[in-house]
Amino acid sequence: MIEGLQVNHLTLRKRDGAVSKVESRRHDGAQRPVIAGQRAVYRHCDEGSNPVKERPVDCFVPRNEGVESANDESGLLRQPRFIPCGKKSMQLFMNRKLIHITFFAVMLSLFVCCNKNKDSYYFNGNIRYIDNSSKTVKNVTSKSIRLDGVQSGMIAVYDSLLICWHPDFSNHFFYISNLDSGNEIGFFCEKGQGPKEATSVNCISQMFRKEDDICTFLWAYNESQLFLWNISQSVEQRMTVYDTIVSYDKNRYFFLFYQPEDILFVNRPSDMLNSEEATTPFYEKRSIYTKEVIRDYPVYKKKSVKSRDASMLEPFFYTWDVIKPDGTKIAQAMRSLPQINMLDIHTGEVIGFRMQKGSDFSLLESYTDIKSKHIYYNCVQADDHFIYATYWGKEQWVDRIGVEMPLLNTIHVFDWNGKLLYELITDRPFFRSIWLDQIRNRLYTIDVNTDEVYYLDLDELNL
User: Worst-scoring range by mean pLDDT, 74-78, 186-190, 327-331?
Assistant: First the structure.
């Protein structure tokens, strides 16, 4: 017999009690344990390889006595890897596994709590997570409208009037056409530096009836003037009619919402203080004619936030806002988080409703995260029953002239308690410029690639 030759016999003990042996037999008859299921067994054989003694041992097989073997350079079998065996060894193995699982669970809890703390550190209200499973998904088909003229830009609709705002209109800010006839009505609100002119005004965020006329407020930042534009009289007279022009504070205002008794709610957007710090947005309740600030509505706990590049903070905090027609709440659809904010006008309470597993305010802690963020909500409209918010939820696209927009065709429908009721999947894009006409109960949009105007008939969708 060749000296040093070793032959391994494999026997395993199964859970059902069946015996499988693992033996290591040398030419001299001595026998050493490898493993035997849960327990190692020493066997001694005579020269005829007949077992003469058996003794179970609870142990770990030594590193040089495992099951798996391989040839070394001499061509002989080298000793196998260390393998645990026995009840005690198995218990130790399970304890180690339990420790690892517990460790990762604790770390995950710390991560979640840390993010939750960031939410409460920045946001001035509670955040509730949206139950996506309760929504109903509907595939919907839009209807086209044939129009003459130069429809383009941001739109607003009241009954048969389609109003377009675009900065590229040469001499005016607004263009109006008739949805029923398709005919052009004309251009309104002159650009310039003369009387009743402005170098820039905001697009329309709200239309309301004042006495028997349809009106809206326009903010001219460079001139520090507030224009009350009478749309009904302008259409009737085929010329721009301003009921009132009020000198106003030279501040940046987004989303002007008029309420009776000459009250104006205005969004004060994020603004850069320096290259590394920007303010957080908030709402003001103001008197139109006395210019008095009646009340502030802070959406965030911090008045300003610092970052490596403060220019990234303004788009992060940007929201699309709409006021409930009864004047009790303002809804904000966040651009950089999958979240809808509800601001109660009477109590000042703000609540955030966020998609589960969505991004949170911990993004503010990382310059890289802010810079490479996703885009979520792109526009919002509402009536007294529902909120309609166009949704993307993916990485930001290349947004520049000449680049075709992706198909943004998802609309989330919420109630005013923050519950996600429907997800509408449209056949054509519904993107940044949408408008809910409450007279005909239609949700309009204009295609940014083709300037085609079309709508969803909400009565047909039972909305």
Answer: 74-78
Contact 431, 379 (CB under 8 A): yes
Which residue blocks in 84-127 are alpha helix, DSSP H? Answer: 87-122
- Other beta carbons less than 10 A from residue 438's beta carbon: 16
* Beta bridge partners of residue 188, listed in sequence order: 174
C-alpha angle 42/47/48, rounded to 5°? 95
| 128, β-bridge pairs | 353
Pairwise CA distance, residues 339 & 130, whole Å? 9
CA angle 202, 203, 204 (to 5 degrees): 115
456 membership: H or E segment, kind and range: strand 453-457
Rounded Cα distance, 392 and 89, in Å: 53
Task: Read off the pLDDT of residues 427-442 as tens digits, 9 standing for 90 and up.
Answer: 999 988 999 999 999 9
Local structure of 253: helix, strand or coil? coil
Q: What is the pTM of this model?
A: 0.75
**How much of the chain is in helix, strand and coil states, percent to nearest 5?**
15, 40, 45
Q: What percent of the chain has pLDDT over 90?
A: 61
Q: Distances from the Cα of 376 to the Cαs of 220, 255, 357, 379, 447, in angstroms? A: 29, 19, 13, 10, 19
Distance CA 272, CA 279 (A): 6
Contacts 24+ apart (CB under 8 A), 159-168: 159/437, 159/439, 159/440, 161/185, 161/214, 161/231, 161/235, 162/444, 162/453, 163/204, 163/231, 164/446, 165/203, 165/204, 167/200
Residue 152's Cβ-side half-sphere holds a number of Cα atoms within 13 Å equal to 11
pLDDT tens-digit readout, 90-135:
666 566 666 656 555 545 444 444 445 889 999 999 999 998 888 9
